[in-house]
Amino acid sequence: MLVEIETAWSLSGYLLVCFSAGYFIHDTVDIVASGQTRASWEYLVHHVMAMGAFFSGIFWSSFVGGGVLTLLVEVSNIFLTIRMMMKISNAQDHLLYRVNKYVNLVMYFLFRLAPQAYLTHFFLRYVNQRTLGTFLLGILLMLDVMI
């Protein structure tokens, strides 16, 4: 799936993209229904862009590999959440907090920046074409700016 981002397809990858799209839909509805739209507008923008990208894999069965690769970004969220929970509980003096701080930095580069850079490089081939790849490049570039 790393090499054939456009054409690679597997049932597990397809189901993962479907599940993730469902999560983004649910989270978007939750933000709007709870009245947090103004405070969480950047999440809404991110969710709409992600859903647009995932729907290409769901409805056209193309770029499923790209959707799976994009989800690697979520791995770094584990360490961000641990860091935030430790800050909330005033545990910044613990060794685990300091270790997690550096692990978080490594995970940011490995699972957030590296996949985004790889996907951006891949999709730049579609700049001069009016295809689904060009649409996905637009979404990806907006996500690059947000990161």
UniProtKB/TrEMBL annotation:
InterPro entries: TLC-dom, TLCD. Residues 1-147 form the TLC domain. It is found in: Membrane. GO terms for cellular component: membrane. It is a multi-pass membrane protein. Its main location: membrane. PANTHER family: CT120 PROTEIN, TLC DOMAIN-CONTAINING PROTEIN 1. This is TLC domain containing 1. The keyword Phosphoprotein does not apply. The chain crosses the membrane at residues 7-25, 58-82, 102-124. Keywords: Membrane, Transmembrane, Transmembrane helix. The lineage of its organism: Eukaryota, Metazoa, Chordata, Craniata, Vertebrata.
